[in-house]
Amino acid sequence: MLRSAEQRRVTGEGEDPRVTELRAAVSRLRRELAGHPAELPDRGVAEDELASLHAMALSGVPEIMRLRRSLLLVVGSVGSVSALAEAMTQVRNAVELFGRRD
């Protein structure tokens, strides 16, 4: 079945599955960052951008450029923390879903 660039698959609830994936990934990274004991100089930046990503996911299909900007800021803030690497990768993969054409 062919899809136009504008048409996306939706879950049973009518929500774009990319948004569901983004919301789950952002929630996981927020939890892991909150539980990380080390003092991180840019923790506040990461927390603010994760909150922004979460808000974009709640609003529906987010703007791709804003998603990517927030992702870059989060990676720049906590990307070198190996304990957060898996959750960070999950967020990156979720953001990349919005750049793909299905």
Describe how the helices and strands are arranged.
Layout: H1 17-35, H2 43-58, H3 64-78, H4 85-96
Helix pairs in contact: 1-2, 1-4, 2-3, 3-4
Number of strands: 0
Biggest sheet record: none
Indicate the multimeric state: single chain
Spell the H/E element sequence.
Answer: HHHH
* Helix count, DSSP H or I runs of 4 or more residues: 4
Helix content: 55-70%
Rg calculated over all Cα atoms: 14 Å
Globally, the shape reads globular
Cα separation of the termini: 11 Å
Mean pLDDT comes to 86
Describe this protein's structure:
The protein is mainly α and 102 residues long. The chain is 61% helix and 0% strand. It is built from 4 helices and no strands. It has helices spanning 17-35, 43-58, 64-78, 85-96. α1 (17-35) runs antiparallel to α2 (43-58) and α2 packs antiparallel against α3 (64-78). The chain is globular, with a radius of gyration of 14 Å.
Relevant terms:
102 residues; globular; single chain; disordered N terminus; mainly alpha
Summarize this structure briefly.
With 102 residues, the protein is mostly helical. It contains four helices and no strands.
